[in-house]
Queue: 3 jobs
Job 1
Amino acid sequence: MYSFEYQRATDPKAAAAILTADSDAKFLAGGQSLLPTMRLRLAQLSQLVDVTRIPALKSITVNAQTVTIGAAVCHADVADHAELRRVSPGLADLAAHIGDRQVRALGTIGGSLANNDPAACYPAAAMALDATIVTERRRIACQDFFVGMYETALAPDELIVAVEFPVPERAAYEKFRNPASHFALVGVFVAKFASGVRVAVTGAAASVFRVPELENALSANFTPEAARGVSVSNANLNTDMHASADYRAHLIPVLAARAVTKANS
């Protein structure tokens, strides 16, 4: 690992100002992706700006319409928050199955979304629940936030402050996980709103995406049978050492059906 300076930020704007002045600096939250990259000498940074002690980034607020989660809240705290589990159990359950206990104790929701790993779980929740990503300077709709593999709409010096999730009528997440990393080979988040159903998939392509065919079928009939009756194209899906595009295409409606069963239980 190369040498670097460490700073602890006191507020979001001060943290962003450091990166504005120094293009080789990076924000540090849980560090679950950034620190291994540095340890392998795949990144050489001048400064790490720790944002985990900023009060505005550490809170969870829940009401009947919206769940607001600070960007530095770790996965374990999302999973264990009693009010969040009551109004949005699908989101809490997703957080409870990210990585292992150590990852959940350190990894943060803001870090996960900013990194936008193609197999990460939170992007599926953000897209299915129609989340809004709030930074220190603007609000970004989820459909505009995820750009591509490890790419988002964030500027290099822009800091996520919080994520706002509308509360669905019903929702659930199912993933077929890699047994070693616990990342999703395919993960499917299904959310039912009064306006219809949203379905988002992670792990299957370069970035999270929605499946209109499943959304239409489940909006008409929110049952596992309706999900299993949908055929998903393998076009633009990943083939790698873990699974083929065909297999991932097969898994998407299967996992959607399981998510519907869970949401209806």
Note: The mean pLDDT is 96.
Job 2
Amino acid sequence: MKLRIETAGMEALMVRLFDTIDVANMAWVLAADQALREAFGDALIDLVPSYTTLLLHYDARKLSHVEAQARIHHALTDLTPADTRQGQRHEIPVWYDESVGPDLPRVAKRAGLSIAELIDRHCRDEYGVFALGFAPGYGFMGLVDDAIATPRLTTPRRHVAAGSVGIADRQTAIYPLPSPGGWNLLGRTAVPLFEHAKRGEPLLRPGDSVRFRSISRADFEAQGGDTTPMEERS
């Protein structure tokens, strides 16, 4: 871990711990999150952990820029990694099908796999939740197997259905709401991520882990899933 503090706004600092994404980072990011929350107390407005950084928004009426930086240095000196086993483990059922996962054939071909093998690879690993963002309940997860890692679409879709499961480079995620998006879509889940977030109880939190499970269309429908096909580049 190499601590750097960068100015991110009038009342915000970017706390950079690493330069590259790695699963091992999460234990340090979670430890830093807890230490900073304790160090800033009621002077903390918001703290957003991510793959390699934490964005810290503090109350400038209570702390100067210099004082905020000093608190960060003090809080993170002699930091020890957190126990990532404390995070919740989630199993997310996914209906993998070309009608709702239109990028399945292209991603499989790029990886030199059959569609069935691609689905197996995506379901095989357990993914850590590194950060929340983009939309309420949207968890950035990783790291996807190098063999199936696929760059984002050159031209994003104007509309991606809620529950869509996709990958971008070595990340995977679930769209909680209908929205534009440039991730490669593989399938869809009926798990209502946005409803959890709306109640202030996001299902996925940094430090949690997720494993995807392939289910049939019948099971997906029984869970209340929307089978409306995705229109290519809609």
Note: The mean pLDDT is 92.
Job 3
Amino acid sequence: MTFLAVLFAILALAGAGQALAARHALRRLAASSLPAAPALPASVLKPLHGAEPGLEEGLRASFGQRHAAPFEVLMAVADPADPARPVAEAAIATGPAPGRLLAGGAVLGANRKVSQLAHLEAAAAHPVLVAADSDMLCPPEWLTAVSAPLADPSVGLVTCLYRGEARRDSAWARLAALGIDWHFLPNAALGEALGKAQGCYGATVALRRETLERLGGFRAFLDLLADDHALGAAVRKLGLRVVVSPVLPGHAMTEASLAELWRHELRWARTVRLLNPAGYAGLAFTHPLPWALLALALAPGAPTAAVLAVALAARLALAVGVDRALERPPCIRRLASLPIRDLLSAAIWATAWATGRVDWQGRRYALSAKGRMTEAGSPRHRGS
């Protein structure tokens, strides 16, 4: 075999081992008991942008939390004419918990989500603040699970991983959800289990108001694309712990086209690469199937065919293990999408090595080496 074929075969076999380790880590995480007490008074902060499929369901879930302490749900739209506004107002009118919507307000920085969070922070009534993306579908125990650890004064911030949930009848939304379930979720679970991830996952961030004030509030993170990562790092610098709660809310995936999926996932990938180039390079081991296919293409024969079989078996074992851990029913059609999803993930990983701009919420941004955002015009198509 050629040198490259051998190299690709080694990467494929190492990736197969990584897949089995990630499967085990995710199953352990999903089997963990959720923090159930104490219940702390909390303000849920939800910046909104657009009325994507799943928004109404997600807001109902936020209001329907089984939380023994008082809580409120505060939402914000930057544009008073945003189509998310009537959805939020309907949720407030029918929700069992107090709610409020902020419409308008000054744009404080390049990261418009963080700008909205700064306005919501000022309006919040409770000592625990829980920032949650609008596309999160949270189970009823989520709020207690992500706020209870803050009763320990050594804990400065609580976050959690999430699962993929297609909320548009689209093959691309389903593929996007598979990317969450079969790539992001088990790999992040493995990183956390090994103590290497040092993660802060912005879909859910819970912290005490006093901790946030020590950091300068959300305003201190206004121009950062990876505001969640920076927030977690800042909390650790205070000498406080960042805890990953085992609760797994759903992430509503609404991609209607390949282009939309590509823009969305490329933004995520470039963010990770910018924050941790070495760790991003290590993600090569999460793509065993493409490496095995390359090895087979360069050196056809029984040895490379065996490598491909091992890689495929390991990835299938991970997919089946993840689906069981998430209590998803067996589905041959879902598993048949694995090769397509794996090749797509590898293509995005490779493309993200090239420098470029990112699209987010209909705007295009240039990024500095330190992750600061500068608006650079509008893309031809609305980003995710």
Note: The longest strand covers residues 42-48.
